Amino acid sequence: MKCLSCNREMMNHQITTREHKIAYDLCSHCGGIWLDRGELDQMALQVEGSLETSSRRRTQDDDQPVRECPRCDGMELEKVHFIGYSGILLDLCPNCGGFWLDQGEMEMINREIEGLMKVTGPGFSQFISSGHIPYWHRRVETPSSETDFSEKVLPLKGAGKKGSTQLECPVCSGEKLDLYKAHGVEFESCPRCQGMFLDHRELTSLRDRMDRDNWIKLRLIDREDESVSGDSASPSGRLCPHCADVTMTATRYGQTDVMVDCCPRCRGIWLDGREMQEIVRQLKEKLAAMPVDELKAKLRQELQEVFTRRDVTWDEILNARAALSAISAVTVFGSPEMLNLVEAATTAGRSVGLS
Question: Which residues are within 8 A (CB) of 232 and not within 5 positions of it... i.e. 6 or more apart?
């Protein structure tokens, strides 16, 4: 493994104590450290809950440098706030869950923890920096190149492969798509580029279920028929995986800046790798910034459709439920921005043992 800061060969450290074992990769030149999934929780001061689970809220600072995950081929790391709202920014791989820490950030994390919550025990970083050799049973240092491994990149976190198909990827010539299932929705994906093909309305179903806390509310921002209406569409040059001989059109997805490919015949949608996650992220930002008056207007419109028509559909009922859920939450604080901040802080605090 090469250091993400200075590109020098890193060293893998494997430490075994009487009760625990940990491995981490350290750059002896600049002090950068790579921690695989679960290792940040072991390294930092011990608290109730998981520090890693709560450290997933992305920063809005576009000026932050982008690094590539050393475990997942072609996967960019995301800048996230430590425990959701801290000023400490870490690099997180959204696929394998590994963290990159620059020199000094481990100490900053421990100081932050001590000031916020109850500490239940020391972390490995304290044993290592303090030289508590009596607690060590075995310590081995090996060049990272001898212990490196790769993580399989999935189109979506938690997606399970169901089988193979004969459909061809519109991006990778000759590559067959695999069948996956995530959040109850089946879709095809390319094993090489992680692009995804979703049938009509599957994008909406999958999008609305990806975020456990906001799935019902995202319906307020974009509905699939409106999001891919094709008003600004142009030929993309890519062939539809299902229709084979039909060229898809490229269009902006609703109120986001993500360009998707839509088949004019079957209305299926092709997303390049990570575009699904980007759509959800941008829609959540739109929802958080929506004025209360606009939410109230949507609520009135949706409820009027539900209670004045006999042929009301399940989608319309869900839309009304989404509006009611959103407006009831926002009016508590009067500000979507404040609501977003408090929700992030509450979720982060609960996951690390704060009441």
Answer: 251, 252
User: CA 237, CA 228: separation in Å to the nearest integer?
Assistant: 17
Taken in order 46, 47, 50, 55, is the CA torsion positive or negative?
negative
Beta-carbon contacts of residue 21 (< 8 Å; ≥ 6 apart) = 14, 15
Q: Which of 303, 271, 287 is nearest to 343 (CA)?
A: 287
Instruction: Measure the CA–CA gap between 9 and 6, rounded to whole angstroms.
Output: 9
Question: For residue 128, what are its two tokens?
Answer: 């290592």
Token reading at 19: 């009760």
Q: Give the count of beta carbons closer than 10 Å to the beta carbon of residue 348.
A: 24
User: Which residue type, as a one-letter code, is found at position 20?
Assistant: H
What pTM, to 2 d.p., does this model score? Answer: 0.67
User: 3-class SS at 341?
Assistant: helix
Per-residue pLDDT of the chain (355 residues; tens, 9 = 90+): 999 999 999 999 888 776 677 889 999 899 999 999 999 999 999 988 889 888 887 887 667 778 999 999 888 899 999 988 788 999 999 889 999 999 999 999 999 998 888 898 888 887 777 655 455 556 788 999 898 888 888 888 888 999 999 999 999 988 999 999 998 899 999 998 899 999 887 888 888 777 655 444 555 555 555 556 555 678 888 999 999 899 999 988 887 888 899 999 999 999 998 899 888 888 877 777 777 677 667 666 666 666 666 665 555 555 555 555 555 554 444 445 544 544 555 555 555 555 4
- Please report, as a single letter, which amino acid is at residue 27: C
At residue 301, what are phi and psi to the nearest 5 degrees? -65, -45
